[in-house]
Write a structure and sequence with these properties.
The protein is mainly alpha-helical and 89 residues long. The protein has three helices and no strands. 91% of the residues lie in helices and 0% in strands. Helix 1 (3-42) runs antiparallel to helix 2. The longest helix has 40 residues, at 3-42. The N and C termini lie close together (7 Å).
């Protein structure tokens, strides 16, 4: 395994991690922004109002994007395991 191979695997792992976490994080961020705007407009500063919608939406996003995330992770792991022989040699 050369230095370039290690860099390539690391770069691809970071890209896969961003693709896997991105949809849930983006949806949670949008909901957090909407809740924050609602709190600023109504001047309601209840801490649970900020957390409960984000948790609920993150769970729904995981259920919705779960097959996509699983497909990305499975594809990455199968390609990595298929090339283990070339990395070790």
């Amino acid at each position: 395994m050369t230095f370039g191979d290690a860099i390539s695997i690391g770069r691809e792992a970071l890209f896969v991690a961003m693709l896997a976490a991105g949809p849930v994080l983006i949806v949670s961020m949008v909901v957090g922004l909407v809740v924050s705007l609602f709190q600023a407009v109504t001047q309601i500063q209840e801490p649970t109002l900020a957390f409960i919608p984000k948790i609920a939406v993150a769970g729904l996003a995981l259920m919705f994007f779960g097959p996509f995330i699983l497909a990305i992770l499975t594809d990455f792991l199968s390609r990595t395991f298929a090339h283990v022989v070339t990395f070790v040699h």
